[in-house]
Amino acid sequence: KTIGSSISSFERDIALRLPQMADRILEEAGRRLDQVLKQLELEQIVKEQVDNFPVERLEEMVLSISKREFKMITYLGGLLGGIIGAVQAIFVILI
Predict the structure, then answer these.
(1) pLDDT of res. 45
(2) What is the pTM of this model?
(3) Residues 48, 67 within the same domain
(4) In terms of residue numbers, what domain contains 70?
C-alpha cells in the first residue's frame, strides 16, 4: 500500500478538522501571548537595541525625515497664504 493511498483515507477528516484545530491554536496563542512576551523580555531587547544604536545615525534619520516634513509644511503654508491673500483681494475689490 502506498503512502498516498494511506493518507487519502484521512484526507477528508483532516480537511474537516483543520479549521477547528486552527481556531483552537489561535485562541490558545492569544491567551498565552502575554506570558510569551514576558518570557522573551521583548521590552528589554528593544531597550538594549535602542541604547546601542549609534546617535549619529539616529540624528541623521530624524533630520532626514524632518527636512521632508518641514518642506511640505512650507509648501502648504505658501499655498494657504496664497489662497487667503486671493480671497482677501477679492473682498477688497468687491467692497
Answers:
(1) 87
(2) 0.39
(3) no
(4) 54-95
